[in-house]
Every structure is written in structure tokens, then in C-alpha cells.
Queue: 2 jobs
Job 1
Amino acid sequence: MTPPLLGLNVAPDAVFLSRTRRMLEEEADFLEITPETLWAAGCAPGPHWDDMVALVAKSALPVVGHGVGLSLGTPGIDARAERWLAAIRRDHAAFHFLWYSEHFGFAGADNAWAALPLPLPPTDEAVQSVAARLRRLRDIVPTVAFENNVGYATLGAPSSEPVFINAICSAAECGLLLDLHNVHVQCDNLGVPTDAYLAALDLSNVIEIHVSGGSISDPRWLASGRTMRLDSHDGPVPPEVWTSLAWALPRCPNLRGVVLERIDGSLGEADIPAHEADVRRLREMLC
Amino acid sequence: MLSEVQRILVAAAHAEDAPARLRALVDEACRGGAEDDARAAPRLTADERAWLLAMDPDGLRVTSLLVRKLRFERVVRGDATLLRRFEDDPAAFTNVFRAYCRDVAPTFAFPEDEARAFRAYADTDAPGTG
């Protein structure tokens, strides 16, 4: 089996690119971009679009797309979705995505936009809605996947989510982007054993894995003082996620790449050594 | 029905008291409408109603905070002058933003659109801007 590739996310942020430049140039086998971060209103190319095209061309690395805003779970294909898909098609012509992933959930309804992917009910209707949008996405980029999201509150038992995910992969004939930090966050917050969640997934669907770190919510957020883990992608990879990655790697026969995610704006100068250490650790695990 | 579940969740996610807003919307959906209303039948299945009402209230509150935080970020990222206004007087700006969230539907996906709408709201004689 070909070892999976090591990927790093790139963002249109000069400081972030400067601080991750060495890792991007020396360690990344592929790059992951979120196309809508390059768009302006109406899904038109924004002020950083040309720069990103140039950066990717200069790197000579393959690219995957990882979107947030297609809103996979919204029923039907409305005018907004058509504009979004047209923009992805345009970007695919420029970036030649190896594969394209979107977030599990829905980002808007009834002309109201949440931006944060919200949970779906575990129904056949939801399975078919997600599958329909993934099929339209696959008309543009031949290999598509969706990512397990973090639900701070879910519809139905969170322990049943793997069954729901497996059903969508089957209905849509698509891959799964397994975000191990998202699994860690959701399971910890909602009291589900991580190993049971992972064991219930059909790991033959996994084409990409994400690892990252996060944070803990401010205790002032909730009147109870309760805190929750957040999928903020703004910290080093925690030990539990490395453990999950070690478990998952030999069990994902169709895995193509693992991306170490870090959100732009979260990487200070003092954070660079730890981030580079995470990249080196990931490289060792993938060899 | 999926679209009704989603309409309720998005509306609750934008509310300052997400659990209370969700309960109210679920009750309204399950009552249905007037007899001559095409949506007279309850708009949620029994399962959908049960799942919505069983959502972790703290999880809903955190979700709502993050959704509204993202809306705030669209405002200040979409217009550098609005970011400066916030930095100059965070409390006043936040009060206007809260009023904006109550009065203006969250229809914008891109920062420049959200910022333009916020500026139009804030620069008129809107509640909380005086």
C-alpha cells in the first residue's frame, strides 16, 4: 500500500504563510485550501485568489479542496448552491483538486446563514439530501468526501452518528474525511467513548484524515460554568489524537493523505517549534 | 420535515437564548397553522420533535455563541473601519451589534456584504446607536 501523503493547509494570510513557509516548502506532499476563503461577494475571486494560484503553481505541489459553505445537508439545489458549485468548478480549473471535501451538516436554511455547519437529523431524507449535493460536487471533482463535523449538541444519539455517516458514504458513493480531533472533541463533550465511535465507522471509506489541536471554552460562556472542548484548530495536536491516528492508520486501506490543520491567526512565533514538531511526528507516523 | 428542522436550528442558533428559542419554534411547528394554511399539519415528525427537544442546552448555547461570533467576524473583517470602531469602543459597538442581530436577518455569507449591511444599520438612527 502506498504510504499516505502529508498535507498542510494554506490560508490567504501573509503572516501565517510566512510562519509556515519552511514546513510548506520542505515537508508538505500536498496542500489543502479552503476555496471560499479566496472568494468575494457572489463567489467571485477575491483579492487573494490570484496570489493563491501563484503560490500553488510555485510550490508545484498537488492541491485538495476543503470547503465549508456548500451546505451539504440543505435539501435540493437552490440558486445559491448553483453559484457555489459554479465557483468550485472555476477553482478546480485553476487548482486541479485531487479531491474535494465538504463539512457534514448544513450551514443555512430559509435564507438564513449560520456559517457554522449545524447537525442533521439521522433520517433517510437527510442521507439523500447530502448524497445529492455530493453527487453534484462529484460532477466537478471526480473524488469527493465529507468531513465528520463537531456537534456541540446533536440530533439523535451521538453514539449512532457513525451509522449515519456510513449510510451517507454508501448512498453518495463518496469518501470520508475523518477528522480525528473533531471525533475527540465531540466524544469528550457528549460522553461517547472515542474508540467505540471509531470502531463503528466503515474505515474503508476514509480517503483523508485531519489532525489538529483545539481549545477549551471560556467558563464564563455558560451560566453553569461548564466548559466544552472546541474544534478551534489553534493548538498543537493532543496526545489522544495522536493515539487515534496510530490506531486508524493501519485500518484505512484507501487513505490517501493526512493533513495537519492549523487555523491562520493562531500561530505565533513562539508556537512555531511545537507546530514543526507536530509536522515531523506526522511524517514519522506516515513512513 | 428536514427543511423545518433546519429552519428551527438556524433560527435558534442566532438567538441569545438558543434553548428557549428552539423550544418555542418546536411548539409552533407542532401546533401547525390555521385551517386555510397549507402548512396546517404539524411540520415535524414525532422523532424530529423529540430529537430537537433533547438537544443538550449547553451545546446549543455554545453553538449559538460560535454562530454569532462568526457573524461578528464577518462584520469586522468586511470593513476595516468597523474593526477600528470596535477597537475604539468595544462596549458601544457590541451593543449596536446585538441590536443589529435582533433586527437584521442573517442572510449574508460574505464579509463585505455583512459589513455593508451592518454599516447601513449602524449609521442610521437605529436602536442602540444613539
Job 2
Amino acid sequence: MHYYLHLLLPFKQELLLLIAVFILLLVQIFGNKPQQEWTMQWMNLLLLITVLTGFWQVGYATDVSAMFQLTPFSAFEKSVLALATYLISLQAYKWLLHHEHMIEFYVLLLASLLGMFCMLSATNLLFFYLGLELSTIPLAILANFHLQQKQSSEAAFKFIVSASFASALLLLGISFLYGCTGTLSFNGMADHLVVNTFSILAFVLFFTGLLFKISVVPFHLWTADVYQGAPVTVTAFLSVVSKASILFVLLNFLFKVFHSFAQVWHVMVLILLLLTIIIGNLFALRQQNFKRFMAFSSITQIGFILIALLGQNMAGSAAVVYFMVVYLFSNLCIFGVIALVAATTGKENIDDFKGFYQTNPFLAWVLLLGLFSLAGIPPTAGFFGKFFLILSGIQNARYFPWITFAALNLMVSLYYYLRVVVVVFHRESAAEIATIHIPQPVKLSFFICVAGVIIAGVGSWIYTYIYSLASAVF
Amino acid sequence: MIVNFLLIVPLLTILVLLLIQNTQYTKPIALAGSVIQLMVVIGVLLQYLAVSSFNNGAMLLQTDVVWFSPLHIHYHVGVDGISIVMLLLTALIVIAAILVSWKEALLQKEFFILLTLLAFGAYGFFIAIDLFLMFFFLEIAVVPKFLLILIWGSGKKAYSATKLVLMLIGASALLFMGIACLYYNEPDGLQTFNMLQIAQMQLPYAVQITLFPFMFIGFGVFTALFPFHTWVPDGHSAAPTAGSMFLAGISMKLGGYGLLRLVMFLVPAAAQFYAPYIILLAAIGILYGAFATMVQKDLKYMNAYSSISHCGFVLLGIGMLTPVALTGAVLQMVSHGLMTALFFAAIGMIYSRTHTRIIKEMSGLLVYMPFIGGLFILAGLASLGLPGLSGFTAEMTVLVGSWQQPVTAYRVATIVAAASIVITAVYVLRAIGTVLMGKSKEYHDDTPTDARWYEKWAGSILFIGILVVGITPFLLLKLISPAILYIQQTIFK
């Protein structure tokens, strides 16, 4: 008995989700439908436990024929993803409460999260690909969860088409990589990879597949439409959890598997990040729909995150993971407000928020904090996040001029975040949105997000903790 | 230890303001916080005097706690004479700004929280020794201004607020790149943000030359360096009175103070290399600001453009690099802070009564408001450098210090700067003549009243400051000079 427990312990986060998914499915098939609210609270609790287990009894473990590896770092990454999902689930309260497919929503959400967990722990490309698909396909269904709206189906369709295209590239890349090295395990590949035309081609295909998922320019074209069409909750999940998981995976690949390729991918990353920041900024300037706006804002943020990849392994990966923690809190501040407003009034345009402060001061402050944090303004955590990203990227003096250019783009991004603030604090006319009642779970999520935005920066222990985890791995 | 209270007191004030429900206590709490803060500053001053030996300009009363250990970032604060002078200035202006806004009716709680947050940023900036900490506080002192202008401002407020913040954040981005690059280029791969430690090491000359423009422009934008001064007029004129006072009185000093630290601790060799450019830009700024002021029709715009001219003196003093000129630069920061704050306060008081700031639409106001008119005149006279008031001592010190540089071109710049004082006299006297003197307008139902008690207090506090700097500058010099001598030693070692 003890032996089996020992064997299962490394999978505790995955197992929790897996069991929950199956229970939900069984309930859906056989059971009487339980009360909606009751189920949602259980799901929230489950996610919270998943977050906490990431800090309990984590060590190094390898399993499933050495395809699965648990490290304190990956356990922390999983906790970050679970935390984001927990907050999103809290924020979805108002929307889900009367949704007829609430249980399916959680089945898909948890399945997607499970896929990401597998991806993060994979040490073999097959297992990795399994996780990737498990995380992607439920997302396409989730994007369609506004059952009555055509736009939602359009979003789902666009998502699945671009995701499968990306997967195709990725698979081709994987098979080429297998051709190059004769192995699918990460360690084996890292040992056998030599820089030549074929392996670079394989790398480019593989890399492109991943870049699609985090919508780096020029692979970003699906993002805005999908973000706009999908329900806000799903958009939040796409923009925070899905992106974070791929970025964590990228760290693993770039810093470990493709370490010998550093010269090659440094240049690629530099060009891509400059493109991403410029295009993301330019398009964000004139968006009217708040979700579309957030789509371009998140594209720009990805550009800034890529800066850290140019740095040294430890500082770079710590900066990325730390920034994702910050990004999660700040983005969810904003998405929480949008979700609540959308669920109550159905309004999603930035101009609808005119005079928002007059009627909903609390929500306005939450929104403001989130925007300021994304713009990188102290004392919010976004300032520290941006600072550390750029600080680690600049370590290589060759990139100094380019990164200076990228840093000046912060000014442009600040401009459009402030544009929203200007609208929110508009005083000349009456507010368009009446006072909104905030349900308890949503309130809780706001408190967590706001606390996160403030504490994650000034409280240095979060960064220090991440750094210590990263230094053990990289 | 006591230095930390400079940060704790505003934070506590903000916390209390956040927690109280009854808005009628907002103003007393904000005022009490700022007065306690002044007492803390005086406490810091006394303790500094007790522990400092006068030939030593080193940072004293230090607190050093590790903040982000992997990146060697510390919470490291301390004071020298210059910082104490700036702290005193900040404390006075914050009290005056809170008093001036006593009748603020709109969203009081938010207003005073933002004002205190600004003060928090400024205090932190003036005592920071760690560069990261300094940058952190500098940024904190930027964004509340945006909200202050946006919510409580007047005129083209959204435009002005955005312009101000974008320019300042753009400057910060450059500054940040400078700091980050410095961090990686220290000898022996030391990687520290500690200014004192960086001052001890010899940064390679090439590094200094490369980094100086980044940091110089970064701080320069804050202190209205020509040609990056364009945020000043718009920002100041759109801001509410307290906001303008804060902007001109404290925010523009952040840049000047930062430049001094930059010159003294970080890249002294580059400062010498770039001195001619600094002086050129400063001289252009002084003259341009003065001429631009002459054609302004709006009182706030007038004062904002004159700030560009006056802040040029700070830059001139820093560019000259002689001890007297540097001392003058610090004095000018204090003098300009007090004087413009008073000017803006007086303009705000006049505006709240006449509902116009256009010079031509007012005349003979002195009859109705002798006290406010008096403040206006005194601020104007301080601005044009009347002996006995602060402007005279400060600008004279800068000019005398500049003349000590025997280079012809520098002397031309000095003459240009001195000539600007005449232009200042023209616009100040003309404004006083039109607005206060002359035939009084007839008012039917809303005859302008004179200052209320809070306005009298606000004006008096600032005016006493101006007198102290003007009549007994040696009190400040006692604080400033040792620190300046210390700079002298670092630059020419």
C-alpha cells in the first residue's frame, strides 16, 4: 500500500484533476443534477487544493518510463496555473450560475488544465504532445460556450483551425527532431542535437508551433477574433493560463533542450519580440471592444516576456515565471471586471465604461490597478515584473539598443492603458453602467487579485522563492 | 532608524484615509499626517546634525535591508545635507498643498490619498541610496499626478495628463536602461545598485560616456530640460492647484536631485565630458522659457513657462561643476520650489474667486483681496530675484559659481542666463500690474473675498520658507556645502 502511495504521490496534482473530471462525468451521466452553486463551490475548493498541493511534499521524481518528471519548479508552475484557474472559476460565478452546461464547463476546464500539467512535467516529446492536445481541444469547445451566439462558434472554429495548424507544424517538427537525434526524450535530444540545416529546420517548425499558441507576431492572427467571440471567462483562461503554460514549456525547451542552439534562437526571439511589441501596440491603440483590446495588450505583453529569454538561464526563467504570476493577478483584475459587467449588462465595449467610476468605484479601482500593473507602474507588481524581465534580457550587451527600443515601447502601451483609465474616470456625463452587485465569490477573487498585484511586487519573497526554485533546475 | 519614519508616516496616513468611512475627517487626517511628517523631517535634521561632523558629506543615518537578494537589490536609505534640504522643501509644500485644497469637495478621500502617495514617492526618492529603490520611488511620484489632473483638473485635462505621464514614463524608460546597463558593467562583475559603492569604484570611461545620455535625459525630462520641456506647461495648467504646486515644487526637483546624484556618485567623468552640452541646453532653456513666458495670456501657463526658465538655472549650475555653482543649483531647487508653489497657490486662490486665469480679464484685484494679492506680488518678486527673497540668493550663487569657469563659451552662457532675469522682471511686473493694480472691476453679486484661514496659513508657510532662504541662506549652506565638497572630491579625484 505504502509503495503505491509513494508511486502516486508525484502525480497528486494531476490525479486530483483526473478524479474530479471523472466524477463530474459520472454525475452528468447517472446522477441527479446537483445544485449548481453547490457544485461550483466544490470545484473552487478542488482548485484551491490543487494550488496548495503544489507546495506540499514536492521533491524530484521521475515516472512513467521516464516520460514524467516532477520538480519543485514544475510543481510551482502547476500551482500558478491552478491558481489562475481558481480565480477564473470564482469570477465566472455570475455567468455560470444559470448556465445549463455548467458541469461540462468544469469537465472541459479541468481537462484542459490537466493537459497543461502533463505538458509541464513531460520529459518526452510524445507525452508532451499528448498534454498539449489535451489542453487545446477542450479550449476550442469552451470558446463555443455562448451557445446562442454565432460569434462564439466562429471563435471556436477559428481557434480549432489555427490550433490544428500549429499542431501540424509541431508534429512535423517533432518527427524531424526524431530524425535528427533518434530519440524523443528531452535529455537525449539535448545531448545529440548538433546545429545543421536539418536540425534548424526541425527547430523552426517546432518553435513555430509553440509560438502560434502564445500568439507571437506573425502567428497572432487568430487571437483577436477568438478573444472577442469567446465568453469572457474563456478569454481570461486563454490569455492567462493557456499562455502561461506554453511559456513555461518554452523555458524548458529553449534553456535545456535547445541550449546548444542559443545563438540561433536568440536572433529569432529578438526579431519576433520586436515585431510582437510593435504590432501588438499599434493594434491595441484603436480597439473599441474591451476583449479585443485585451487580446492585443496580451500580445504586447508576450513580446515583453520574450525579452527575458535573451538572458541567462536562471535569471531569465525566474523573471518569466515571476512575471507570469504578476500577469495572472493583473490580467484577472481586468478580466474579472469585464466578466462581471458582461454577465450583468452584456456590455463589452470600452466606451460603455464611460463614467464607470461614478457608479462602481470599487470595480473601477480594481480595473485601474490591473491596468497600471500591466503598464508596469509601481507600486504594483507589474513594475517589478517588467523591470526584472528587461534586466535579465539586457545582460547580453549586444541586445542593448534593441531592448532600449522595446523599453521605449512601454510608453506606447502606457498610452492605451491610460486611455481606458480616462474613460473610466470620465465625469462630464452620467455613467452608462448602473451600480453592479458583486457576488461573494467574485469579491473574493478581486481581493486575491488586488492583494496579489500589491504584495507580489513589494513582498520580495515571491521572487526570491521563484529564483531559488529556478536555480535548482536551470 | 528615524529616516524610515519618513516612509512609514505617509503610508500610515494613506491607510487611515482608506479605512475611515466618514469623509469629514479626511482633511484633518491628511493635514495631521503631513504635519507629523514635517516633525519627522525636523527630527531627521536634528539627528543628522548630531551625528555629522561638518567636513564630511557622507550619507548618514543609513538603513540597509536586503530586498531582492538574487538581484542584489536592497532597501537602502540614508540622508546627506542635500537630501535633508529637499525633504524640508517637500514637507512644507505638502502641508501648503493640503491646506490650499481644504475646500476640495469632489472625491475628497481619493484626492488626499493620491496627494499623500505623491509625497510618499518624493520622500522615498530623496532618501534612496539604492538605485532600484530610487527608480521605484521616482515612478511612484509620476502616476498619481495623472489621476490628479484627470479627475480634478481643468481645461484639456485628459490630453495634458496623458502627455505628462507619457513623457515622464518615456524618460523613466531611458533612465531605467541606463541603470540596468550600469548594473552589468561594473568592474569585477559586482552587480550592485548601491550608489555609494558605485561611487567608490572606477567605472570604465567608455561605459560612463555611453550611459550618461540615458540617465541625463531620463532625469532631465523631469526637470524640464529643453527640448523635453513640453509636458510642463500643459501639465501645470491643467492640474488642480495642489497638483500644480506639487508638480512645480517637488516633481521638477526630482530630476534636479537625480542629476546631482548622477554627477556626484555614478558617472562623474562623463559629467565633465558632457558639461558643454548641459550648459548649452540649460542656457537655451533659460532664455527660451523666459521669452515664452512673456507672450503667455494665462497666469498658470505663465508660471509654468517661467518654471522652465528657472529650472534652467539648476541645470546650468550642475553643468558648471564648480562647488559654488552646484551649491547654487541646490539652493535654486529649494527657492524655485517654494516660490512657484506660492505662485500657483496664489493663482489658484485668485482663480477660485474670479473663475478666470486670463491676465487681461482681471484688473485691480488688490482692492478686494489684499492678502492674496500680497502673496502674488511676493512670489513674483522672489521670481525676478529681489534681494532678500530666495530667488536672489539662489540665482546669484549659480551665476557667481558659473563665472568661476574661465571658459569663454561658459561665460557667454552665464551672461545669457543673467540677462533672462531682466525678461523675468518684465513679465512678472506686467502681470502684477494688470491683475492687481489698475482700475478695479465692479462686481455685483459675487464680490471676490480675501483669503480664508487655510489659505492664509498655506501662503504664510511658503512665504516664511522663501524669506528664510533669502535672508539666512547660510542655514541651508551649512547642510549643502559638505555634501557639495564631497562631490568636488569625487569628480576631481
